[in-house]
UniProtKB/TrEMBL annotation:
PROSITE patterns per record: VOC (PS51819)
Annotated protein name in UniProt: Ring-cleaving dioxygenase
Organism: Haloechinothrix aidingensis
UniProt entry tagged with the keyword Ribosomal protein: no
Keywords from the UniProt entry: Dioxygenase, Oxidoreductase
Record's keyword annotation contains Oxidoreductase: yes
A Pfam family of this chain: Glyoxalase
């Protein structure tokens, strides 16, 4: 393998009601909305990006939310758990915080001495918060509901469910340049680069599991990082040369992408990390207005009319939050 990824870029899932999705990920989990746009292949629905302050690669969970979407089925051939990294001493705080919000949780300890809290979002997406024993130096997004010392640092890992690990393992090592870390029963861990939070995929072998169905409450695809366009072009040629059915390079505005499936069935993406979400709006204003690619701008009025309104909390935009606090303070003093 001549080219290797440095870690996860983002995970994209399918959700239901968009406002419910916003409320959970911004208010309950304390992430930041870093881009409000549409599904470029189906502009009748949003594409919502959640992450850290700037939406750095490795911090991102994104959604296509369709109100009334039928529920999917967790099973073989898909990513079945998305895990975030949190500080080591914060699991107890998160358990209280989530249960106060009406979210049922299960507390576990992994074979890697990682303490974790597992739960489901309102649409049934399986989420895990993992406290890595060596810590995570990435800077969090700080909100009144989830203070920085407890906050999510970014993606920790994804778990893929497959019926047989051999061909999937080959794709991760020979196709993505990951290295095998270790095995724990029927769970095989692979890591990119130096390993640690944001670089991990766990392959869970479940021979008797039903075939997964991608719909509401399931992961659509898992994206891995590629530094730039030149590397992506070379990588695409390498994958195609190995017989992998890979798409052409697609412009996603904030990164460029290619897509292909690993042999177990999960859709994977290689996304560049050299553009970013400040390409069309300032850092302090990320996510607050609907952004469309140039080819959809002529249809903006029609698209906006078809999309439900979204209410974002003021703390998603620091300037707005500071202005409101200043006005309230002046009113109290007056």
């Amino acid at each position: 393998m001549a080219i290797a990824t440095s870690g996860l870029h983002h995970v994209t899932a399918i959700g239901g009601d968009p406002q419910r999705n916003v409320d959970f990920y911004l208010r309950t989990l304390g992430l930041r909305m870093v881009k409000t746009t549409v599904n470029f292949d189906d502009p009748g629905t949003y594409h919502l990006y959640y992450g850290d302050e700037a939406g750095r690669p490795g911090s991102l969970l994104t959604f296509f939310p369709w109100k009334g979407v039928p529920g999917g089925r967790h099973g073989a051939g898909q990513a079945t758990t998305t895990s975030f990294s949190v500080p080591e001493d914060s699991i107890g705080w998160w358990k209280q915080h989530l249960e106060a919000a009406g979210v049922e949780t299960s507390r576990v300890r992994t074979a890697d001495s990682e303490e974790a809290l597992t739960f489901h979002d309102p649409d049934g997406l399986a989420i895990s918060l993992v406290a890595h024993p060596q810590g995570d130096p990435r800077e969090p997004w700080d909100t009144p509901a989830v203070p920085a010392e407890r906050a999510i640092r970014g993606l920790h890992s994804v778990t893929l469910s497959v019926r047989d690990e051999e061909s999937t393992a080959g794709m991760f090592t020979d196709g993505l340049g990951l290295r095998f870390s270790h095995q724990d029963g029927n769970r095989f861990r692979f890591e990119a680069g130096e390993g640690g939070p944001g670089t991990i995929v766990d392959v869970l072998v479940t021979p008797d599991a039903p075939q997964g169905l991608v719909a509401g409450g399931t992961v659509h695809h898992v994206a891995w990082r590629v530094p730039d366009d030149a590397t992506q072009r070379a990588w695409r040629a390498e994958l195609a040369g190995k017989g992998v059915q890979v798409t052409s390079i697609l412009d996603r505005q904030y990164f460029h992408s290619i897509y292909f499936r690993e042999p177990g069935g999960t859709l994977l993406e290689l996304a560049t990390e050299d553009i970013g979400f400040t390409a069309d709006e300032p850092l302090l204003e990320l996510g607050r207005s609907l952004k469309l690619p140039p080819w959809l701008e002529p249809d903006r009025a029609q698209i906006e009319a078809a999309l439900p309104a979204l209410n974002l909390p003021d703390e998603n935009n620091p300037e707005v939050a500071e202005a409101i606090a200043a006005r309230e303070g002046a009113a109290e003093r007056g």
